[in-house]
Amino acid sequence: MGLNVTQKILKDHLVTGELTPGREIAIRIDQTLTQDATGTMAYLQFEAMGLDRVRNELAVSYVDHNTIQVGFENADDHHYLQTVAARYGIVYSKPGNGICHQLHLERFGVPGKTLLGADSHTPTGGGIGMIAIGAGGIDVAVAMGGGAFYLTAPRVVRINLKGKLRPWVTAKDVILKVLQVFTTKGNVGSIFEYAGPALKSLTVPERATITNMGAECGVTTSVFPSDDVTRAFMEAQGRGQDWRELKADPDALYEKTVDINLSEIEPLAAAPHSPDNIVTIASLAGTKVEQVMIGSCTNSSFVDLKTVAKILAGHKVHPDVSLGISPGSRQVLKMLSEDGSVTPLLAAGARLLENACGFCIGNSQSPATDAVSLRTNNRNFEGRTGTKSAKVFLVSPPIAALAAIYGRIVNPLAGTDIPYPRVKSPKTFDLDDALLLRPAADGSAVKIVRGPNIGDPPRNVPLPAALGGVAAIKVGDKITTDHIMPAGARLKYRSNVPAYSNYVFENTDAGFAKRAAAARDAGQHNVIIAGDSYGQGSSREHAALCPMYLGVKAVVAKSIERIHQANLINFGILPLLFEHAADYEAVAQGDTLQIAGLRETVEAGQTRLVLRNVTRGTDIPLKAEFTERQRAILLAGGLLNYTKQAR
Ligand code: MIC
Ligand code: SF4
After folding, report:
1. Candidates 116, 121, 493: which one to mutate for ligand 1, based on the most atoms within 8 Å of Cβ?
2. Matching fold, domains 268-412 and 467-646
3. Architecture of domain 5-264
């Protein structure tokens, strides 16, 4: 029987297990990436493992999230990251070089390789034919140490693309269509594999826009085959020698196939406050817009921004609109500058922002109260911009550019005076790696610099014999890691867990951190009660690490998303599911809870636990389904303890 692209790559990298969907497998990781907001903790954990040098083929440390350097903390983090990279053999990408995913695609991505990244948008690498997966920092630290990555053998869904995109319809609209079809729920354990006659019309950066935002569906990753389009991109990046063809066998099997006809797609938007709240631009036409932000790892390629420059050329930004443009990389910015595309942007009145995550992570450019903000990034969770009342619509760069000119949402398919500019991919890109610092062969003499904001990663204790404590918070469905652990203005505490822990659930329940810390200090275990899709969104392990620090021992939910579930286990927090979803109603915040014989049950490999609600005198059955390895990690009190034990 033939294999699909996913199976080919996974088979090449399989360390243990078999490719039967739903079973646990372990794969070898060729490349790793981190960014500064997840990287400090990942490297602190790598250091705690006591190895002398990274052992995978390539490890890159990017600085892109927290580049504004207000206060000493960011710069101290960067200093630590630069020296730890030189010490252990990691390539260091300096602030100003660009966004990790865009850069990795440009300079390092190789078809057929595996990439594990401490960032949920690592699947961007699927655009170049990699199996590229987002994970918590500690999983990436283990992979840097040469350890395998454990995941569930995926169900592979084939997305068959046919037809051709019309003018004003872009790759962003394709992935918004995919989000409309699949939504953000129910895709855990799947990989989207793209196929079909329309592939040849999509460039690598366009494919990467699609695989990038596949993360919002909750899939393990998304992947495109590697073909002549991939080869042309790699040659233009001066890396033609790394290209290899990778395509599915004609008789390859898939879990299911979904057809998408590109000719039928129209410009779309994700309306507030979820990336799967898809509406047509036609239905929004006329909506007044106060802010337009173009960039992020989803839509900041040279072609994306040159298209914007061509639309803006000869026009002015509407007086009521603030337009910010953030190129994905220094390569993109230099090329825009060299070909004269920066001038029309400036002449129109755009604000040229740093080539970094910037507005997307909410550490700058927060919109005004109640403002409508059109953005080309991938997440519009409530409050992520830093302004809770803002209404964020996710759109393509051309739709954003039109709105910046007119001050309202315009449906170009209904007619506009501005012609759609078809911009071609460059034959060669500007190849200047000056901001990529490659490590020397021997780093043993390098002194690692640690400022006062760099603390040791906190350790957990082994799983207790019984759980006894309180339902410290009860939250609803679709709680994202942005709700649990805000980024934005709080990002600078990423390397200081005691300080960052003061902000757990800050925007959901401002009293949580104090309450939980008091219960912890009184010897109680804290339990989080949640609805469906708990822990959606980013890979930030602080959404597990900081609750752990506050004494959280278990999350009891209707369902939990993949990366967050792994992070909870990695930090020794039990991810438990209601056996009957209706039992969610049987616990109120503040109820006293107990699980007798907890350690014994997990040790014995039993998959059911009973949660005693002492306040109401009821028993609630819970699912505790873990693999043998996950059980061992939980019993040890987290992956760091487990890894130490195993050696
Ligand atoms: C995000 O887009 O939410 C982030 C910030 O890139 C996160 C990583 C983080 O929180 O540091 C992600 O996507 O994993
Ligand atoms: Fe950066 Fe935004 Fe991409 Fe996250 S989604 S990596 S914050 S640009």
Report:
1. 121
2. no
3. 2-Layer Sandwich (3.30)
